[in-house]
## 1
Amino acid sequence: MQYLTLISVLIAIIGLAFAATGIKRLIQRQFIKAAGLQFSGLFFLVLASSTFLLASNLYTYQRLVYEQAVAEISFQQVSKQRYRATINALDSSFQQSVELNGDEWQLDAQVLTWRGVANLLGLDSNYRLHRISGRYVDITEEQVQPRSVYSLVKPLAYIEDDNFDLWQFAHEYQS
């Protein structure tokens, strides 16, 4: 995924070059050329920003290798049908402790599987631990007892408003 960041930097450099040339043409009073270069520069800078945001979102995923353990989870019983679970993701330094209600637990992951041109470009399947939840064996208890669900997705520290989710976008617009 680091190559996407490199690509976004290269696109930004191209955008800045167009913008600088546009300013030079503006100083030379070549207004039409200046406007065209400025719009081109703006286009490349927006494209660079979009590529960077895509790369940033992809960094929240880990490479998926077949038959690979993704996390170690340990449990301590707190009370009847209540457990403290400690999740250690194996591919990162991520660790989280939560309290789960129920007799069983479920770990959900989001998986990105690439097709077509993306496969040809060498993009591997990736996963991200999504959430952990407690479950009850008895259906009646499952319907009545309190649920416990916790997100395992780490927000990106350098993006304040991280509303774009690549998995949700791919899931919604898959072909």
Note: The CA atoms of residues 85 and 98 lie 5 Å apart.
## 2
Amino acid sequence: MGFWRRCTPSTSACAGVCVVALLLVALACCPTRARGAAPAVYVLGDSQADVGNNNYLPATLPMYKANYPHNGVDYPGGKPTGSLGVASPPPYLSISNTSVYLRGVNFSSGGSGVSNLTNMGQCISFDEQIDQHYSTVHATLVEQLGPRQASTHLAESLFSVAIGGNDIINRVLLSQLVGTQDQFISSLANSLKRQLQRMYDLGTRRLLFVGAAPLGCCPMLREQSPTKECHAEANYLSARYNNAVTMLLRDMSAMHPGMSYAFFDTYTALLQYIRQPEAYGYTEVKAACCGLGDNNAMFQCTPASSYCANRTSYMFWDIVHPTEITAKRLTKLRLMIPAVGLPDKHQPAHCELGIKYIYSTFAVYRSTDA
């Protein structure tokens, strides 16, 4: 039986931004098989989870990639160390041997949104991630394993989705977008319903959905606010979107008894840092560490950008993404996420592997070689 859970940290310190990391927290906490591990991890979404797919898109502008300085500045040679020993699912476009599909794939693309119009031509749309790439993996697994075993494999695997933030950002920034706020949220919810149903039809049964952050508080949207405080409309739309997603997930779980899910409340988690920065060691939660213009918030981090020396004191690395320290702190937490579809007696108290993966995954994403 599916369930409704809003996953928040067991302590009050959690940024909740790196989606792949959160998925591995769920993996570590959700023993879907007797030996306590899901057979594979499949990740879909935007730049929160993109580990390099956009680097294989020749027409994509650099602003939708992260494979250049100063990203990875604190890693030897600008590359992730891999010292934590936790591997990320590889980007789909990098895979040449389809046997890898059995161990998991990352389909995510920076800039993508629920709507196909969001950053169109610069990323792999969410529909394309599902209907072309995940669909191809599904067909290949059926060919390799047979229909029954492929179905079992996918049903026991963990899937992550982090999508919607770019739709909200574009709505706020692009004045030519028309329609009321209600119409906007309704349109996203209707599209997402179709997309998640398609994932279900392709075998997804265990899902972690990472909710929208308080996007109005990221440096880019603060800069659009007359007071330079959190952008009220962006935060309102983020909260409305999260409510729509949770209602959709509950409805899907009721409709499909075999589907289990968890929703990570990124909005609440991030606000804990923003509202009480000193309690978590931050001296700067408004400006970006790396960027251009006022508060480094006018354009993203590029080789021409300045970047802060005291990176451990900043919450945001660039106009929208977190610093390494935000991810690193998560490795020291005891983050509890309920086991997906399992009774409480099977839920471990802490999630060591998942916490380590938070730091490891962020290293991959911000690497200059990602």
Note: Residues 232-255 form the longest helix (24 residues).
## 3
Amino acid sequence: MRSLSFVLLALATLLTPISAQFGFFDQMFGGGGGGQEQHHGHGHGGHQRQQQNAPSDGAGYRAQYARLHCDNYLCPDTLACVHFPHHCPCPWPAHEEKVELADGQRICVSHGGFKAGEAARKVELARKGLL
């Protein structure tokens, strides 16, 4: 009897991490938990409504663009109101460097691990055909 208890305990100990691994993959890949109902309410007994994906067309963006008022220039990617197009900020300034081009436009270039100013230098070299 004692050896049976030991075998059951060992089996339970081995199955617990395996069960946890499958739960991780279900959550990571959006699985339904193998047909099991999952409750996401933290002790409230209810289900949380899953967030809806953004529409696959630009209707929401166009509606937001139409609601905004700007007397000067409305940046198309950030919806910032600025005096000139080259004054538009980059959408992700922590990850992008703004480079002003000679024609009054600006582009946003990923830092890509370069030092500050290095991305702008590479754009200038490419513009001159040297890169």
Note: The CA atoms of residues 1 and 30 lie 43 Å apart.
## 4
Amino acid sequence: MTDAEFLADVGFEVVAPHRYFPRMRLELEQGLGWKADVEAALERLLVSAELKQPVGAGASLRA
């Protein structure tokens, strides 16, 4: 069993108090906003990191 105090610390709320087994709920809509933000940031990073010229293109091999 997971400690109710830990669950409360990470965002769960008690919806039905009980001495030993409180019923707890996590509203997922609250925590999903960060995922879209991270995906957008990664997309911007990938776009800015695209190579304009492939590595080694234009280089000549001389022995």
Note: The first strand starts at residue 13 and ends at 16.
